[in-house]
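Limitations

Structures in this collection are predictions, not experimental determinations, and the ligand pose is part of the prediction. Treat each record accordingly. The example that follows, with pyridoxal-5'-phosphate as the small molecule, is included so readers can see exactly what is and is not provided: the inputs are given verbatim, and the output is the predicted complex.
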Amino acid sequence: MKFYSTNNKELQLNIKDAVIKGLASDNGLFMPEYIPQLPESFFKELDNMTFTEIAFEVLKPYFSPVVPENKLQEIIDDAFNFDIPLKHVDGNINVLELFHGPTSAFKDVGARFLARVLSWFVKDMDQEVYVLAATSGDTGGAVANGFVDVPGIKVVVLYPSGMVSDRQERQFTTLGRNISALEVKGTFDDCQRLVKTAFLDKELNDKLFLTSANSINIARLLPQVVYYFYAYAQLEDKNKDVVISVPSGNFGNLTAGLIAYKMGLPVKRFIAATNINDVVPEFLNTGEYNPRTSVQTLANAMDVGDPSNFVRVLELFNKQLEDIKDSISGYVVDDKQIRKTIKEVFDKTGYVLDPHGACGYEALKDQLNDDEQGIFLATAHPAKFPDVVEEEIGSEVDMPDTMKQFMDKPKIKSEISSEFIDFKRYLLNNDQQ
Ligand SMILES: *Cc1c(COP(=O)(O)O)cnc(C)c1O
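Predicted complex:
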């Protein structure tokens, strides 16, 4: 299997080079040259398969033989060490809980897999690999915890001072070992600029091997395809049409669902649920695509005004708007409705939603027909957003044990300005230690 750049179908790499590079040299995103179909026998067995068994069958066509089958199985078993249960919430609505990993958000799935694959790909290099990750909150934790103790790799997380919540900051500043945290006196955009500039700096690249664990990496995307099959496997009633609602920001999660769909997952349609950053729902309604500056909302991991993965959605449908509309509808949930949904669902069912899951639930509730059954993805644990959630449900949200572990350890971090020279000096000095 080759992977091509969305900017140029002729630019093709194998999985190893696509993963190490992250982004194609023409700034395109890597896409598989074709979408493999899973055989009928797979779907016959699906209900009885474990998550890791499903993962092997789904990921094999993309990674084998560059990653030998026994190695792929080992990576899968090591990466996916937490459950992703499907639970009934209300009526014909079910939730897929993606937040039982180490940082209580779905990004753990992609980050843990990417870390292990990347580590294997670079194992024969004679120098350490630096993974640079700029974060506005959740990515830093997922990447840091995905890579902690992974041999041959050092992670540097850059985050904007004062703009990350205490619980988020703890998830990447308390690990130590091969993880360093850099508090940047600036904005998230400054952090991203520092990382991008580092990749262009000749002296730095001569001395250090730099890569990124950005969410556009194909090895973060593909493992997310797996849980769509696992969700379907857990559905009790396979006779009703299935609709899946995906709370979306950069649209990686929805892209993964659409890849599952193209591999044969028997789902009728998808809903792209967003907060008021509604570039994609607007496109689905009007055909006009107008990326713009993002605005802040309660579902802050979805505050994206120019979703990087949307180009992949277009690729999957050969850019045919009508085909896209047949398979995906959009739905927008504002902050007032996010709060209302959290409260109403808790009062009616006792189920506690986080602000992102609330968008997914509300979109599904609005668009699901009586003769269909729905699944929405819960992308983060509600304890990650205690202020909003506790106010709406009127009681405390229990922290999962994984989150408690971060709370009593000291934060270890270095502070830098937003000047590139400061960052560069940090990297060069760090390497000598
Ligand atoms: C990153 C994130 C999202 C958005 O996912 P995309 O794949 O970027 O669309 C949604 N919810 C949570 C909690 C996230 O961390």
